[in-house]
């Protein structure tokens, strides 16, 4: 295996009862890379991320994260990653300050370094004024910022972000994007999931298009353009083409137009 | 819009509030990705909300008529006995309504449930009416149960229509007053807890009231037994210094309509004062609820602060987090009342005469004190585990072993038991009694570990995951049964061997307890990280 490979996933399969969530996906992420998993709702993005983060056991397949197996050593993996869940349910009656105290204590970080880093992040994401308010009283975007800060504060080599821009304002989105670029410039890696084409196009170096539990196309945006004959310039068109939805969508829009004309 | 239409719409608003109240305690169990389960889950929450209202109504009915039944069983239908019965009945209704409304009103104040009304073509007046009817819906069954109970009992006991009407009016004012007080607490909770510096105290008052509300169900029979003769005695000795006790709510109002012989100027003055306060508080409540949807009633302040953080050992951090969550979550407020309850239980059992003789150690009061205290404390770890599920999708991303989390919860459980330990250590002069009490910590630690461990092994194959909402109740009963067995077993061994030799029996109890804790620690290794 390449020394620089931080995440390696081979033939990953996950079944939920009769439902096949993942049907043998494989990909690799190297240091200095933001790998985007792009797919519609229910494609298997979150399941993949959870397995890589050691939160879910696969039905079969091999996963290696920074030299560790998330199935046999989930705690070891969690020490080395920062994970932002899709809908982070935080301890709602704690204040952000108390919440960060809890997270830093569990992660056993060096006090001075962690507090300094945390203060910078809190300031960057404009959280200072909310630090003593219960999390339950905060907006969805502010809660998302808390989850993001918790994932970044220990400066992990691998970040796993599940739709991290949900609810974020433009300023915070920009800061997060810059932080991710800084992170990969320092040799870190990011596994990023989104269903928004523009986000994937602007943030990710490499994209894996996931559909019905399979990666149906993979590469940089320009590589994908070359691979998908007939697709237009945008990632959206590439995506619709590889997932076979372009014709179906044209039919739906036609039917809608007819319904509104009547 | 006519009243009937507004009443129909208020049903949806009420369901939203009740749903949110129940959802807060159960949302961790909802896997949003599984829509089939989500629908079932929502139906179940609505059913539980209705069941909750029916249960509280039944409690209210029983609670409000039981003082009269007690009075009739004692064959004492004198004027004083009747006044006492009515007063106790009103107090019980007041406590239950207060307790029940404090579950729901924070969600009405939050107004998120009824904000949606503003999107529809409804006038402000119509929205205000719907808000008010929504509040009424939160207590419709309880009000009905109280009214029915009062009418039946008054007609049976006094057979006076005027007195029945007056009693009914007093009951309605009492309910309105209880709702106003609940709203007052909810507003304080919402306003201060979500903002300013006074929050610690207000939150504590709120959670303590909540906890006492839960305990009220236990204390109900005791109220009938202990308070009734006491109040009766005060009324009979009308000239006594204790007469000032009768100035407390609701005695002056009760005396005003039931017992003119006991009326005095202070009592009349206090009656007028209470009527005035009730009128103002109900008026304020109506105004508030009418306007809550427009969102200008509450102004949550934001404060700026410097950030100083303390990084602690992981187990201490989890315990501190649980302590903070418990102090702010009504569902967990019972934990704060628990040590007080245990101490009161033991002190009242012994009447301050603790065993100092080695032979008295087998005294059933010592055993029952330890059994009750221990069992209640062991439940804390299960309760805290269920609170952990609320944020499981975040907690599971942290590098922490499941066993560490359970250990922290077990230590927390043992902490709630320490008042029992201190009571015996302080009051008992015997070294063997002290040793016996200290040893009792071991099975309590074992039970606090084993209950949650077995629960996780049964429901999620040992991983820290929320159980399915449709999991069989047996999954909760097995760990519960185990914790009972864990505390009973060493005590039984002690009792059995104490017939032969006291010291031998204490040693046997210690060996069994150690055996239990070893099993608990071994079982922890079966948990998944």
Describe the structure.
The complex is a heterodimer of chains A (262) and B (529). With 262 residues, chain A is of the alpha/beta class. Chain A is built from 10 helices and 9 strands. In chain A, the strands form 2 sheets. Chain A has a 6-stranded mixed sheet, sandwiched between helices. In chain A, strands 2-1-4 form a 3-stranded antiparallel sheet, covered by helices on one side. The termini of chain A are far apart. The model of chain A has no long low-confidence stretch (mean pLDDT 87). Chain B is an all-alpha fold and 529 residues long. In chain B, helix 7 (161-193) runs antiparallel to helix 8 (199-236), helix 12 (334-350) runs parallel beside helix 15 (402-427) and helix 13 packs antiparallel against helix 18. Chain B is globular and about 70 Å long. Chain B starts with a helix and ends in a 5-residue tail after the last helix. The interface between A and B is large, with 49 and 42 residues.
Report how far apart the termini of chain B are.
58 Å
Strand % of chain B is: under 5%
SS summary, helix count of chain B: 19
Helix percent band of chain B: over 70%
Shape of chain B: globular
**SSE pattern of chain B:** HHHHHHHHHHHHHHHHHHH
The helix tally of chain A amounts to: 10
Class of secondary structure makeup of chain B: mainly alpha
Strand line-up across the major sheet of chain A: 5-6-7-3-8-9
**Low-confidence regions of chain A:** none
State the assembly state of the protein chains. Answer: heterodimer
Largest interface: A-B, 49 and 42 residues
Beta strands of chain B, count: 0
Order of helices and strands of chain A: EEEHEHEHHHEHEHEEHHH
Runs of chain B with pLDDT <50, length 5+? 31-35, 194-198, 296-303
**For the residues shown, what is the average pLDDT of chain B?**
76
State the major sheet of chain B.
Answer: none
Radius of gyration of chain A: 20 Å
